[in-house]
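tool_call: predict_structure(chain=1)
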Amino acid sequence: MTTLAFFRPPHPCSPSRAGDAVAAPAELLSGPGRSWDAEPRWRWVEIRLGGEWRAGQVQRWRLHQGSVRWVALVRWGPRPLDRGWYLCSPDTVRQVPAPAAAPDRATW
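tool_result:
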């Protein structure tokens, strides 16, 4: 069981631009539904933020009861504000192969 504080809205790293990932609406982050840790094979993504693609990791998935919209908690850097909940769309959050070595991401 998670607390509602865990599902706080995302903080974008820079102003949104056309084509950027869309922050998940509050309705999909609270209430009934499932949330689970991302499996290693689905963890690596690129997310479009501030008009550019950034390498990221999906930390958690969420599927609100009665919804078909997946949301993901994506981390793209080491700072506390370098993560947020976003709607999953292949146009803005896309799966990529796991990097061969990512020592700088180990502490995220």
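agent: The beta strands are 33-37, 44-49, 52-64, 70-75, 83-87, 93-95. Proceeding to next step.
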